[in-house]
Amino acid sequence: MKKLHLLALPLVLLAAPALAQDLTPAETVKVDSIVTDTLAKTGVPSASIAIVRGGRIVYAKAYGKQSETLKDADANRPYQIASISKQFTAAALLLLEDEGKLSLDDTVAKWLPGITGGDRIKLRQLLSHTSGLQDYWPQDYSFAAMAKPTTPQGIVDRWAKKPLDFEPGAQWQYSNTGYVVAGLIAEKAAGKPLLAYLQDKIFKPLGIKAIDQDKAIGPAFPQGYGRFALGPVRPETPSAAGWLYAAGELSMSAADLAKWDIARIDRSLLPADDWQEQETPVKLTDGKDTGYGLGVFAAVRDGRLRIEHSGEAVGFISENVVYPNDKAAFVVLTNSWSAGAASAIANQLSATFVPAPKSAASAEDEAAAAKARQVFDQLRDGTLDRTMLTEDANYYFTPTAIADYRASLGPLGDPQSFTASGKPALRGGFVIRGYTIKYPDRTLRLSTFFDPASGKIEQFLVTPTGQ
Which residues contact 223 (CB under 8 A, 6 or more apart)? Predict the structure, then answer.
């Protein structure tokens, strides 16, 4: 039910033909390896994934043990997606606003009496975690009260009538309570249960089979697991009914969640301005950016717009990452809440299919790298051109230093690679640049200081890395 993170602004649009291809055999092997290796390292029993490329689902597969009773992993089985449900609750309020049934600028008090600060909290602040309402489930375990059934009103009565943690809009603080309040308001405006409204407006039109997670429990469904520290993996006891509601009540398959991601990519089903509003990070009253829109994190990472949310229910962790401008998405659903397998898999899939663009080295950086390699080769041969060095560097390179460089580096021969590491930095009036030098059996580190005025080298130190 919680966020577990872990980002609005269209940027790079990659060529669709390259993205629209089905997975090659090599890519399939890579994906399978990512998932199975991560499950093995973390002890998570199973994962179900879906990959969207070119705006369509190109891969969906389940791995591992989904429960004590289900023999084979089936990608069609629904996992509890927990807080990923929040974007659907937010979408419901956006649609209700389109229908003229409410405004996101309404106060909570207009719809629900008795909420602390309800006369000051706007509906959009419920959806952006800026309301100040105290979160009813901040723990990463099920606390004692969760062993007994509850209702949305029961949660509201216990947590939404406490003093605010801060004035509405002043801070960002994750609050499941705010989403329970939002769900109750959505139901009042829609005149029907929230899940029924979502079925009519979103799930049925998109062909998504979504069910209440309280009903996705039993021998026919994936089972949640946990562990204490590095102890044995054990089945978890689900929470009693009613604890997730609008903050995280949904269960669905990875492929069904991917259908929603495709609607986001295509700007379909919801009006385009609703998608944009959901993905636009909300600002606090002091102007600071929260990095969170209405039910989703939104940020530009490595020049790409990334929309993300994760979820945690008892025994389950899920991750959903969408790159709208790249027409790509990665859904990872796992059945253990005692390891970060979901985010690890999603990040590796993202790096595989939507790699960070390589920044082009400047002409100055390229010239510096060429000069560093030239001096390195000279030192290997013992033929140092001192005109390339500053006065201090020439002082450092005594005949003994040059002899030791030649004796230790010369026998290594030509390195396999000589690459820049990190970004140039300034210190003491010099430009610091680092390089990694790799040989078959060892890796060396080179630290250089360049004088920006003369282009000469102030420092040139080669050291071992232990690798």
Answer: 66, 67, 68, 69, 70, 235, 236, 315, 335
